[in-house]
Amino acid sequence: MPKKAVVTVHPAYRIGEISPRLYGSFLEPIGTMVNGTMYNPKHPTADDKGFRRDFIEALKQTPIPAVRLPGGNFVSGWDWKDSIGPMEQRKAHLDLAWRQYIPNDVGHDEYLQWAERVGFEPLYTINLGTGDINDAIYITEYTNHEGGTYWSDLRRKYGHEKPYGVKLWYLGNEMDGPWQIGSWEKDPRGYGIRANEVSKAMKWVDGGIETAVCVSSSPFLAHYPQWDLEVLQECYEAVDYVSMHHYHSAPEGDFAALLGGSVFFEDYINTEIALCDFVQTKCRSPRRMLLSFDEYGCMIRPNRPLRPGYGPHNLYMDHYNFPTRKYIRHDPDNMLMPGMPPMGRHGDMPMALANTSVLLAFLRHADRVKVGCMTGGLGTLAAASREHIWRSAGYYPFTQLMTYGRGVSMRTSVDCDTFDIPGYAIDDNSQYYRHEGLPFIDTAAALDEEKGELAVFAINRNWEASNDVSIDVSGFEGWSFVEHIQLYSDDPNAANTYENPDAIIPTANKEAKFECGKVSANLKSLSWNVFRFKK
Ligand code: AHR
């Protein structure tokens, strides 16, 4: 029986403003994410652009703030100029990153117009693998300049009179990765200088934009964090964010490794903040760098045998490039793509909690982490098959955070039982060090001063026991308790499906008691909880 947990939130202890962009998603044309789910001209609900209206409508029902699109490894070999204008002019290419054909039927304008139709902010990644400074200048002009130049007039000619006004631009995708087309892995200074020049030029085209520079795309890479330091020293003054990625892996059945994974994100965030601040001091700069976590996710992966003697380069030549795999031709009308997962893999509670726990870690660093893009986030918000759309378990915490996780992030102090993650290896590149003393009750809190609302978020990561908890908000004098929303399932393998969409849905815990500024409640094993208070 775990000891009673005590979570305290006090009005004096603030972390920082929460950016709504923290609750973004990431979209790239692999699997059925673009071809099949976002785009299928043969679908019965297809609109004039071939976008699935059922998917658009489902996303419109959520408060989705932002999506990084396009992005991912394919961008590093993609020429956006081949993807604009009449379909018959568009050029099909091989995508070397994912060994697929890119027919460019979904191009630059389609991505941005899809964003307009759904109603979220697009966060755009430019190609700095094979792309150059001119490409960066032209894309900014085409996208954001009013008119009167070749590129901006071309946009108008192709049917979009007004500039799109894209605000945040990513200066390449994972430019440190040896798997990246045109990788800068061996030349961090070179990339830093290129990012500096590109960012300057793009901002000279449009002074209102922000840019994000790549740092190491995983804290487990051998060149991290030195690579990041060398990049930042060359471009600190010209960019606004560092672009961070991480995918956490845990072996099947290992709840400690899966649910404790957010601690590795937190280590990565803390180190990156230290690096940025070190460079800020070196530059004698008044500018404080912000963090964009624009790809993240948690997954269960079988252990792969380690391969002693393989350096990182052999590894990526041999493994990631799938040299023997045939190039895939997408059929957007066929969602059963061999070898690629469909969207919506966050259907069960443990996966939903693992991803949500990462979001809570972002909230605890809301003063510096200003963008979060969940890979598969769109599938979490609207899981889709060829015919149907439904809500995964992860939909509920994700949208509740979008709704109640606003305003100022508040510090939570937690006293509860803890667990350890023993060190483990998934493969050569994913070797996790030991972590001790992780709180079973994972928390964050948000104070919306405009609305006079406080929300305390809590995950019970204990996979074996429920936990009584006291949420102490007595410092918020005169505030009342609104509700305790809980989400759990007695069966950790249960998942929402189209046939059974309500296997996991939130309920109100009527047993929660509020006395003298403290809520007493029980947190079910493997549960998500929101405690809401009002002024
Ligand atoms: O989402 C899969 C891939 O993960 C992306 O293309 C890349 O940016 C990252 O390595």
Helix/strand-derived category reads: alpha/beta
Number of domains: 2
Number of strands: 26
Mean pLDDT: 94
Structural descriptors:
binds alpha-L-arabinofuranose, globular, single chain, 10-stranded mixed β-sheet, 27% strand, TIM Barrel, 12 helices, alpha/beta, 535 residues, Immunoglobulin-like
Explain what you see.
The protein has 535 residues and is α/β, with parallel strands linked by helices. The protein folds into 2 domains: 5-9 and 409-534, Immunoglobulin-like (Sandwich), CATH 2.60.40.1180; 19-298 and 335-406, TIM Barrel (Alpha-Beta Barrel), CATH 3.20.20. The protein contains 12 helices and 26 strands. The protein has helices at residues 53-60, 108-118, 133-144, 150-157, 188-205, 226-235, 255-259, 262-282, 312-320, 349-364, 377-381, 395-404; strands at residues 5-17, 24-26, 66-68, 93-95, 100-102, 121-126, 168-171, 210-214, 241-250, 290-300, 369-375, 383-384, 389-390, 408-415, 418-421, 424-427, 430-432, 435-439, 441-448, 453-460, 467-472, 480-487, 507-508, 513-515, 518-523, 527-534. A 10-stranded mixed β-sheet has the order 23-22-26-20-19-14-1-21-25-24, with helices on one face. Helix 6 crosses helix 8. The chain is globular, with a radius of gyration of 23 Å. The protein starts with a strand and ends with a strand. Bound molecules: alpha-L-arabinofuranose. Alpha-L-arabinofuranose is lined by residues 28, 72-73, 173-174, 245, 295, 375.
